[in-house]
């Protein structure tokens, strides 16, 4: 092993013995200018402990130079060369493997390069070939977007101007007798909306399309209104109460656009209600009324002509406004036309059936030998209710019938009054007594006049004054005629 020994502020290398230092000192004394001394001095002055390469070399040398003998020192060079040769051979062998590996890598890189060049060439060819495909794809995408937009426009157009299959099935119904529901009127409203929108479509320049859609909607609307007409007609035939379903009111509102169908429905309703009201009137006459008026039959009071006629006319006065309210309710949604004339005409048709039973009974009362006071009471009742009903159903058959009955009652009253006057006066005129007391015929005449005028006082209005003047005039003229 080498180790350092201090000597006059210098470091010397030694191999476990100080003889080298002594020998070198003696050599320096003998020949101080020799080259070896210079080298040694230079070596000592270079301070090798700071040279890492030298230290590493000495450490490596110590691995195989274990003994400092003469033989070892002589063979040191050859050992170092052999060691260097072995290291170089190992280095060469390692580099041979590295070279082989690099050659493989080079071949792989060349193969990859060839593959990349081939791929690049094919990609270039593919790119050239796909340019037209890309251009076509772009055109197809633009066309697809255009078609998608057209599809959305078509769907929006169909939603706006066409009915779905479900809506069409609602309009036509599954069967002919299928009742109409609320959905039917919803579809009818949409159908009318589409029909109105076609005008806007035509004003926008799409006349052909607008006319085509309008024609289809018109056909559907006509079929729907025909079905609505049949359903409404059937409902009117079976009306047995005064309350109308909301659907029937809506149906009349839709049918007002078709005046002919609307008139047919009104006539059908009038026919049904005429049968109902005539039946109710006959029941009130023969069986009594449970809904209003007198519970006992009116015919039970036939022996009292005044009350009998009054009850019949009072029943009419109660029933006719109800019928008017019913028909106004039926037509309350009809706001496109004035239905007042149709209401009056309908009421006239409904009440027409009451004319025959009423007229036959009143004529029978007038034909019976009744007192003039009774006939005057009947005439006053007819005149009173005629004035009331003339405001409700003017120019109707019932009003005309009451007018005829009024004329007949007036003739009967006048004839009866004249007959009773002649009976009261007797065949010959009686002179007054010696005490100037009126004759008995005059007293009877005045009593008859008093009875008639007492009934006339019950009558109100201008007719009372006319009746009083007419009765008085008849009595006076007839009395004067008898005296002459």
Features of this protein?
5 helical Cullin repeat like, 484 residues, rod-shaped, 76% helix, disordered C terminus, 17 helices, mainly alpha, 2% strand
Written overview of the protein:
- Strands 1-2 form a two-stranded antiparallel sheet.
- Helix content is 76%, strand content 2%.
- With 484 residues, it is mostly helical.
- It has helices at 19-30, 35-45, 52-64, 70-74, 76-161, 165-172, 182-203, 207-237, 246-255, 259-286, 305-330, 340-352, 355-367, 372-392, 397-425, 440-456, 462-483, and strands at residues 3-7, 10-14.
- Helix 14 packs parallel to helix 16, helix 15 (397-425) runs parallel beside helix 17 (462-483) and helix 16 packs antiparallel against helix 17.
- Mean pLDDT is 78; it is low at 1-24 and 479-484.
- The protein contains 17 helices and 2 strands.
- Among the domains are: 77-161; 164-237; 239-407, 5 helical Cullin repeat like.
- The N and C termini lie far apart (201 Å).
- Keywords: Golgi apparatus, Membrane, Protein transport, RNA-binding, Transport.
- Residues 47-151 form the HTH La-type RNA-binding domain.
- It is a peripheral membrane protein.
- One of its GO terms (molecular function) is RNA binding.
- This is Conserved oligomeric Golgi complex subunit 6.
* Overall number of strands: 2
Low-confidence segments, given as residue ranges, are 1-24, 479-484
Task: Give the CATH level 1 class of the domain at 239-407.
Answer: Mainly Alpha
| Bulk shape | rod-shaped
- From the helix content, strand content and strand pairing, which structural class follows? mainly alpha
Kindly state the percentage of residues in helix: over 70%
CATH topology annotation of the domain at 239-407 = 5 helical Cullin repeat like
**Could you give a short account of the major beta sheet?**
2 strands, antiparallel
What strand line-up does the widest sheet have?
1-2
Order of helices and strands: EEHHHHHHHHHHHHHHHHH
Tell me which CATH architecture of the domain at 239-407 applies here: Up-down Bundle
Q: How many helical elements?
A: 17
């Amino acid at each position: 092993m080498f180790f350092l020994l201090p000597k006059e502020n210098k470091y010397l290398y030694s191999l476990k013995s100080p003889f080298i230092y002594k020998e070198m000192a003696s050599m320096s004394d003998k020949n101080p200018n020799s080259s070896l001394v210079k080298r040694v001095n230079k070596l000592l002055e270079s301070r090798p402990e700071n040279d890492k390469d030298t230290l590493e070399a000495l450490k490596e040398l110590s691995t195989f130079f274990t003994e400092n003998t003469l033989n070892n020192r002589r063979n040191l060079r050859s050992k170092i060369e052999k060691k260097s040769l072995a290291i170089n051979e190992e280095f060469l062998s390692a580099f041979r493997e590295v070279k082989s590996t690099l050659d493989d890598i080079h071949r792989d890189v060349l193969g990859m390069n060839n593959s990349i060049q081939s791929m690049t060439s094919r990609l270039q060819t593919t790119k050239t070939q796909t340019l037209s495909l890309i251009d076509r794809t772009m055109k197809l995408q633009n066309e697809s977007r255009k078609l998608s937009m057209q599809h959305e426009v078509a769907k929006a157009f169909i939603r706006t101007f066409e009915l779905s299959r479900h809506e069409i099935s609602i309009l036509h119904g599954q069967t002919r007798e299928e009742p109409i529901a609320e959905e039917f009127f919803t579809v009818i409203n949409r159908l009318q909306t589409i029909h109105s929108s076609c005008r806007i479509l035509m004003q926008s320049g799409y006349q052909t399309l607008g006319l085509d859609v309008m024609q289809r909607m018109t056909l559907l609307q006509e079929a729907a209104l025909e079905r609505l007409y049949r359903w409404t007609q059937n409902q009117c035939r079976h009306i047995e109460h005064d309350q109308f379903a909301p659907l029937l009111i809506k149906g009349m509102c839709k049918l007002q656009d078709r005046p002919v169908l609307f008139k047919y429905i009104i006539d059908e309703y009038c026919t049904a209600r005429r049968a109902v009201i005539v039946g109710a009137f006959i029941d009130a006459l023969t069986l009594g009324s449970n809904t209003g008026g007198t519970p006992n039959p009116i015919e039970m009071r036939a022996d009292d002509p005044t009350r009998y006629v009054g009850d019949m006319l009072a029943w009419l006065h109660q029933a006719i406004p109800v019928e008017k309210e019913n028909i106004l309710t039926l037509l309350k949604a009809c706001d496109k036309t004035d239905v007042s004339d149709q209401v009056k005409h309908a009421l006239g048709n409904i009440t027409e059936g009451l004319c025959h039973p009423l007229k036959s009974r009143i004529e029978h009362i007038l034909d019976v030998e009744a007192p003039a006071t009774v006939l005057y009471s009947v005439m006053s009742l007819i005149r009173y209710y005629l004035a009331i009903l003339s405001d409700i159903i003017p120019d109707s058959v019932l009003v005309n019938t009451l007018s005829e009955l009024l004329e007949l009652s007036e003739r009967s009253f006048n004839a009866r009054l004249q007959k009773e006057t002649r009976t009261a006066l007797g065949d010959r005129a009686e002179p007054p007594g010696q005490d100037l007391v009126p004759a008995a015929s005059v007293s009877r005449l005045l009593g008859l006049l008093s009875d008639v005028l007492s009934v006339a006082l019950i009558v109100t209005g201008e007719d009372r004054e006319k009746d009083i003047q007419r009765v008085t005039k008849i009595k006076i003229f007839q009395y004067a005629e008898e005296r002459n």
